[in-house]
Amino acid sequence: MSFQFANPARALSPVDELGHLRKQIAHLKAREAELRAVLLSDPRACAGERFHATIRIHEQRVLRRDRLPDTVLNDATLWETRKSRHVIVDELPVETARSQAALELQSNADDDDFAVIEPF
Questions:
Q1: What range defines the domain where residue 97 resides?
Q2: What is the DSSP string of 55-116?
Q3: Can you tell me the distance from the alpha carbon of 3 to that of 26, in angstroms, rounded to the nearest whole number?
Q4: Residue 80 included in any domain
Q5: Residue 99 has pLDDT above 70, yes or no
Q6: In this predicted structure, what is the pLDDT of residue 95?
Q7: At a CB cut-off of 8 Å and minimum separation 6, what does 45 contact?
Q8: Is 68 among the domain residues?
Q9: Exposed, middle or buried by CB within 10 Å (0-12, 13-18, 19+), for 38?
Q10: Which top-level group of life is the source organism from (predicted)?
Q11: How many CA atoms lie within 13 A of 103 on its CB side?
């Protein structure tokens, strides 16, 4: 599967390329889930011409928070807050995307000036 761009000569902005990649990844993950279901339901499907699948059972211990006493759950010394940054990409409506492209063309005269803003 490959994504075909309308104008291959025009480079995509990083956010547009990331948006396209995430769409491809979502498609690939859905297909992977379908194929995984087939392999789990039919062991004969695990042998191919170039690949072989092995089904293994993985076991792990999991802490059951619902069984912890309130003294543990409410003890602030046992907990920490971690922060991470996430990049959320939303697809713009077609008309908005066209407007953005027009604005980009108008502002290309002064490409040396830009600002990066990261709230933290």
A1: 1-55+86-109
A2: ----------GGGS-HHHHT-GGG------------PPPHHHHHHHHHHHHHHGGGTT----
A3: 13
A4: no
A5: no
A6: 75
A7: 38, 39, 53
A8: no
A9: exposed
A10: Bacteria
A11: 6
DSSP 46: G
pTM exceeding the 0.70 threshold for the entire prediction: no
| Amino acid at residue number 84 | S
Instruction: Identify residue 36 by its one-letter amino acid code.
Output: R
Confidence of residue 65 (pLDDT cuts 50, 70, 90): very high
Structural tokens at position 41: 């339901």
Residue with tokens 């089904």: 55
Least confident of 22-26, 54-58, 116-120: 116-120
The tally of domains found in the chain comes to 1
End-to-end CA distance of the chain: 38
**Owner of token pair 């040396």:** 112
Strand partners, 47: 52
